[in-house]
Amino acid sequence: MALDPLTLLTMTIALALAVALYLALEWRTVQEPALLFWSAAFALISIGSTLALLRGSGLLLVGIWFANGLLVASHWLFYAGVARFTETRLGRAWGLVLVIWLAMLLLPEGPQWSKIMLVVNSLLIALITIRASFLLRPRGKSLGAGAAQLRFVLLGHGLFYIAKTFPVLVPGTLIDLAAFRGEIIQISLVEGVMALMLIALSMTGTVRYRREKRIERLAARDPLTAMYNRRALEARAPHLLDAASCTRPGALLLIDIDNFKLVNDLHGHGAGDRLLVALGEMIRLALPEGALAARLGGDEFVILLRNTSRAQIVELGEGLRERFRALAAVSFSTPQAVTLSVGATLFDQPPASLAALIEQGDVALYQSKRDGRDSIRLVDRTAHAEPLAG
Ligand SMILES: Nc1nc2c(ncn2[C@@H]2O[C@H](COP(=O)(O)OP(=O)(O)OP(=O)(O)O)[C@@H](O)[C@H]2O)c(=O)[nH]1
Q: Which parts of the sequence belong to the GGDEF domain (predicted)?
């Protein structure tokens, strides 16, 4: 069954309106501004297609030139949305597209002008759409699977609009925008309906993918220090722990603030929070390449090292201990010094689990606390273990 242009146009109006509403609702949940641009773009397509119905009543300026112009404007909004999504600045030159569109409102009617209108319109849409697809190319960090889909859908849509200009330029091709007749119009409408669905699907996919990644990132982080939390460490540790061997031992450093409660009690919880953030930053800056760090909770932090040695553990632990002691001393006055205790364990066999390793670290940490705090205790569990170091 062949669908006539009017039926296709009516389908376009309904579909574009539904997509505009859907994207607006999606925006309410996701709060991604690109969705608002895209929703407005689909609303414009719906308005433009409704106006296009008026050409049958002889309202050619509104029904053809203005309606087709809205199609250009809607693609421009697609592009603005993609620019927002990819955090790209829109150049001023892109405003020219709207100027050309306004200028086209002045075109007189007639089949020849229909052709010129169609070519200029198509090239503008192709330019905008291909540029939008270009913005979605992978750069450094991936924009995700949804963005890759959107990129190819927009590219295909742009190439279709370029291809559309070729038959228009062949002498004798029938294009009568006023009577709404001709094969190109028919093909354009079918492509339009398909593109509407594909673009809308890939747009929501793009935004949802980013949202899921953001939620994943947030779920992996401790909100105060932005370090990995225990769950994130558990997910990432096995890779590092399994790499331990006699020639490439691994280590865990369990770090706990001494007398931290005094900071909270005497200077307020906010001061305690600032100290935790400062320690997190200190750890982050001291972290060797390939190491992992996390805040386990409260005032307890952990570092996992790969391919390390006793000397490296002591150097790292002592460095942190000294810097933290100096920082706490100048920041807060307390009856007892606010310092760091570090319990470390060196291993050359993959441990049974991260929890088991943390338990071993706890034993060393307890020794430090019991012996007066402000120190590092190391338990060497390698085959060539030397006596405990202090
Ligand atoms: N400011 C702040 N305090 C916290 C946070 N989480 C836990 N705490 C506090 O950290 C303190 C940790 O307690 P402990 O480790 O037993 O106290 P401590 O004074 O460091 O004692 P030692 O470790 O034995 O030296 C408690 O007072 C908790 O209320 C947080 O996110 N922010």
A: 248-381
Domain coordinates in residue numbering, the chain: 5-220, 230-380
Would you list the DSSP string of 252-266? EEEEEETTHHHHHHH
C-beta of 272 in contact with ligand 1 (< 6 A):
yes
Give per-residue pLDDT as tens, 144-194.
667 888 899 999 999 999 998 887 777 766 566 656 666 666 777 778 778
∠160-138-27 over CA atoms, to 5°? 75
Residues sharing a CB contact under 8 Å with residue 246, sequence separation 6 or more, in sequence order? 348, 382, 383
Kindly report the protein residue whose alpha carbon is nearest to atom 13 of ligand 1: 261
Instruction: Give the phi and the psi of residue 245 in degrees, each rounded to 5.
Output: -155, 175
Fold for 230-380, please state it. Answer: Alpha-Beta Plaits (3.30.70)
Q: Which residues contact 64 (CB under 8 A, 6 or more apart)?
A: 52, 55, 109, 114, 117, 177, 178
Q: Distance (Å, rounded) from C-alpha 322 to C-alpha 239?
A: 31
User: Best of 264, 295, 331, 339 to mutate for ligand 1, by most ligand atoms within 8 A of CB?
Assistant: 264
